[in-house]
Design brief:
This protein is mostly helical. It is built from 18 helices and no strands.
């Protein structure tokens, strides 16, 4: 293995962040596009179909949480090991990550068989919504092998600075999904009309193709790590422990989002199922702004981890400041767009008069928290990069469970659906205060003592 300095330790920071993060930001924009297109096509079937996909989302998000959190743990350990020139340890992290991915797939096969339908029934007893949501959920969880391996292979590429190939994987899967959606949902070109089920089938096909491309790119274009079946089948407990020291808090942090979505669905459906459709449409639309910031964050974490391992203080400081400016700028644009064009945005989802009546104020109010959320996301990157993901977990619990859901329930008691949306602004305002406290504490403990 060569000891040549990795580009994460020598390239100018702004150029490095752009080179590493931009492909991820673009691929996540494509990801956001196909998520939105998915729902747009489904909404053409009926408002109930859009509601069905919305009610399935919390468990789908839990699947994403497990795959992403495991990947974050692998990413942080692998990048830090490369920064410290511990190449054997980096290989162990990569191969152990693939082993853990197999276990995650098996867990969600169980979810598909025994949990999917009871989960939907706990939110609604509308037969049409239950049937569509259950079918969709069973497919995306039961055939989750594509998602889990796509996410892991992308993380391995990101960890070594090969974000371009990661972008190719994700973009290919997303584009394929977009192409297949109308064909399978509406039965074009002689294919059977599958409705909501077609959206699920299109999703898993795109994920499986992306996973195959990810494997190929790692084997051919990622020389800094070495994958082998024998290493995958011989996992090291100490490596698993290190991965999940970072990964478990990240998993729990994202899983909390699943609980938030679940309880928000239950609160909103007490008004009308249209409120759930609005909530689902909002989540798809906000991804256009959150996904690029998450892409920036995904690129920032290995940069911070590498330079933490290499003890390069100035590069850490510059990376954080530049990422903060970019993230807040993106989210400010999101707030402006949501406030200027809410009717047009909801119109993509075949919005009824009732959906517009509920949705326009919702987009106006909820989007006010976007710039605040951007700052919290960037500050959270240092927690993950420096193996302090427990801070991110505490912040997520405070924001989404201890504040957002209770506030949403309390505001729902007013009988005015417009009041409920303020829970997002209130919870994020509290979150930024807690984030700033932990960030300042960690910065003083870890970064300040580094040599200049």
């Amino acid at each position: 293995m060569t000891t040549k300095e990795n580009k994460m330790g020598v390239l100018p920071i702004k150029e490095l962040i752009i080179r590493v993060s931009l492909p991820m930001m673009i691929s996540m924009l494509v990801q956001a596009l196909y998520n939105v297109v998915d729902s747009i096509f489904v909404s053409q079937l009926s408002e109930q179909a859009l509601t069905a996909v919305t009610l399935a989302f919390p468990l789908q998000n839990l699947m994403i949480a497990l795959s992403t959190g495991t990947g974050v743990g692998v990413n942080a350990l692998l990048s830090r090991s490369l920064g410290a020139k511990q190449f054997e340890r980096a290989d162990k992290a990569a191969n152990t990550g693939i082993f853990l991915t197999f276990l995650n797939v098996l867990f969600f096969v169980f979810i598909s068989l025994f949990v999917a339908k009871p989960f939907i029934l706990s939110q609604t007893n509308d037969a049409s919504i239950v049937n569509d949501a259950t079918s969709y959920l069973r497919i995306v969880t039961g055939f989750s092998i594509g998602l889990f391996f796509q996410m892991m292979f992308e993380r391995l590429l990101q960890s070594t600075g090969n974000s371009f190939f990661s972008m190719i994987c994700q973009a290919t899967g997303a584009i394929l999904n977009i192409i297949l959606d109308p064909i399978l949902i509406f039965g074009l070109f002689g294919m059977p009309r599958l409705g909501v089920t077609g959206a699920a089938v299109a999703t898993i096909i795109g994920q499986m193709v992306a996973a195959c491309i990810g494997l190929y790119c790692n084997l051919k274009y990622n020389p800094e790590i070495h994958l082998s079946l024998s290493s995958v089948l011989s996992p090291k407990f100490d490596v698993i422990k290190r991965i999940y020291k970072v990964g478990v808090p990240s998993i729990l942090m994202m899983a909390i989002g699943s609980f938030m979505n679940y309880f928000m669905n239950r609160i909103l459906i007490t008004f009308t199922s249209t409120a759930n459709a609005v909530f689902g449409a909002y989540f798809k639309l906000q991804s256009f702004f959150f996904m690029p910031v998450f892409g920036l964050n995904s690129g920032l974490i290995p940069i911070l981890a590498y330079n933490y391992g290499a003890q390069k203080k100035a590069r850490i400081k510059e990376a954080l400041l530049f990422a903060l400016v970019v993230a807040v700028s993106i989210m400010t644009v999101g707030t402006i767009v949501m406030n200027l064009f809410p009717r047009q945005l909801l119109g993509f989802f075949n919005a009824s008069t009732e959906m517009l009546k509920i949705g326009i104020p919702a987009l106006h109010i909820i989007s006010l928290h976007f710039p605040i959320a951007a700052a919290s996301i960037v500050m959270g990157s240092i927690f993950q990069a420096f193996s302090r993901s427990i801070y991110s977990l505490i912040i997520s619990i405070a924001r989404q469970l201890l504040v957002l859901i209770p506030v949403a329930w309390f505001l729902a008691q007013t009988g005015n659906i417009d009041n409920v949306w303020w829970c997002f602004v209130i919870s994020e305002s509290i979150s930024i205060i807690v984030s700033a406290y932990f960030f300042r504490r960690l910065y003083k403990q870890v970064v300040t003592p580094m040599p200049d």
